[in-house]
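Researcher: We plan to redesign the surface later, but first we want a full-length starting point. Tokens attached.
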């Protein structure tokens, strides 16, 4: 794609990076075939290629974002399916991130939008506030019919109430250091995170049991939110503030000796692996950020490298529908590791048809674009249920919440199944479920 940015514009490193991305696009349109919003809406401007044109026009012309541009940028899930498909290697993620921050700086959103986004940005990344908000949401559920009628934001308030769990698990299960059982083979840090630490601390608890059982000491550095949620809302300053705290905390542990920084939420993992790019122009943090990114691993990448004993569970043929989160398969290009581990642990793993299409979760997308998100969830759930699985497994809490709200099939984190298969407790959603009974008992009952 030809561009006409002026030398003065290209002196800005963000603009120079985006110009380089724009120039790699050859307009072929292959990406449109795998874009969820183009599949649903059929509008070129809701396809990757269409959005690339809109962003080019906005940035090159030095224009403030318009309502039309914002509508199409907001509808993008940042699922990155287009990056996997693109034969030219267009780095759409960095381009849309730049566009979102340009929108944040140049466009004044309607009041209801500003209020909602401010609430999300000031609550979600902070576990104490988020816990309180979830309690209010539980109390506010009876008011749902009333709230859903508020003009401009009712549907989104209703979506927030629908996704809030009726109750929260008690406190955090994390501990600063989890000692190993038996001989020590390694030492890792694990992201504790924000919303996940409130909604489902059992995912990290399962990962810690799994790792320590196999000789890996786990430390939690007290880093807080990684900044991913607000980064995807275009709130660069806040995202960088949160990321700097995480980088500082992990740098201390890296100096003490770490094999890896593990992440159990693939959405967060994608952002942490990109810290090196985010901070490339900030001298005090560039090297530290690149070091953190280089050490970041999804928990399944690391566990596979340990070589767990094969078929440890061996007493069930539980059928698992494996849902690969977009941030896992497109953001981090992790495709085989989770499924390999599940198969090694004795589960029958099935791929979900149309597995490359987003479930509609996408960070705060299901709260801000509830209609499109609901259509994508219905499509995803129909594809999963066609497999008639006993359980759904995935590696991202956003997908678990989104898909779980649309199906009665139990849904768990991949590490919960791996922990269970190697001696840990039955994952909570499977407790008392027929599928969790040992195979001989299920066969006798059949
Ligand atoms: S597939 Fe890649 S090169 Fe082709 S239009 Fe899409 S982004 Fe551009
Ligand atoms: S990130 Fe996803 S929704 Fe956005 S343009 Fe690419 S494929 Fe479409």
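Model: Full-length starting sequence:
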């Amino acid at each position: 794609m030809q561009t006409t940015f002026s030398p003065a514009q290209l002196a800005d490193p963000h603009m120079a990076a985006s110009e380089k991305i724009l120039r790699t696009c050859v307009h072929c349109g292959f990406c449109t075939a795998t874009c969820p919003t183009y599949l649903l809406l059929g509008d070129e401007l809701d396809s990757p290629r269409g959005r690339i044109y809109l962003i080019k026009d906005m940035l090159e012309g030095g224009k403030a974002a318009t309502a039309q541009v914002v509508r199409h940028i907001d509808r993008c899930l940042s699922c990155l399916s287009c990056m996997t498909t693109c034969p030219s290697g267009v780095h759409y993620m960095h381009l849309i991130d730049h566009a979102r921050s340009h929108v944040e700086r140049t466009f004044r959103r309607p009041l209801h939008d500003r209020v909602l986004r401010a609430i999300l940005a000031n609550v979600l990344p902070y576990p104490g506030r988020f816990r309180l908000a979830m309690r209010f949401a539980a109390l506010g559920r009876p008011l749902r019919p009333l709230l859903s009628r508020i003009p401009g934001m009712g549907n989104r308030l209703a979506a927030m109430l629908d996704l809030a769990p009726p109750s929260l698990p008690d406190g955090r299960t994390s501990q600063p250091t989890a000692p190993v059982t038996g001989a020590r083979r390694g030492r890792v840090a694990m992201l504790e995170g924000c919303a996940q630490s409130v909604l489902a601390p059992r995912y990290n608890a399962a990962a810690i049991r799994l790792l320590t059982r196999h000789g890996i000491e786990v430390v939690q550095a007290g880093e807080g939110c990684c900044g991913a949620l607000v980064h995807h809302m275009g709130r660069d300053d806040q995202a960088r503030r949160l990321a700097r705290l995480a980088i500082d905390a992990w740098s201390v542990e890296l100096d003490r000796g770490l094999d890896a920084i593990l992440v159990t939420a693939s959405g967060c993992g994608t952002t942490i692996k990109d810290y090196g790019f985010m901070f490339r122009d900030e001298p005090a943090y560039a090297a530290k950020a690149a070091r953190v990114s280089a050490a970041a691993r999804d928990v399944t990448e690391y566990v596979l490298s340990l070589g767990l004993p094969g078929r440890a569970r061996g007493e069930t043929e539980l059928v698992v529908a494996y849902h690969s989160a977009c941030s896992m398969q497109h953001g981090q290009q992790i495709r085989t590791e989770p499924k390999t581990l599940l198969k090694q642990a004795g589960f029958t793993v099935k791929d979900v048809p149309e597995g490359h299409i987003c479930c509609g979760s996408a960070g705060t997308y299901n709260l801000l674009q509830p209609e499109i998100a609901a259509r994508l969830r219905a499509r995803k759930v129909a594809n999963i249920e066609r497999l008639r699985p006993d359980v759904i497994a995935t590696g991202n809490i956003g997908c678990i919440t989104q898909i779980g709200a649309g199906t009665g099939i139990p849904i768990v984190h991949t590490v919960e199944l791996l922990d269970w298969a190697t001696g840990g407790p039955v994952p909570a959603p499977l407790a008392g479920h027929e599928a969790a009974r040992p195979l001989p008992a299920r066969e006798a009952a059949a």
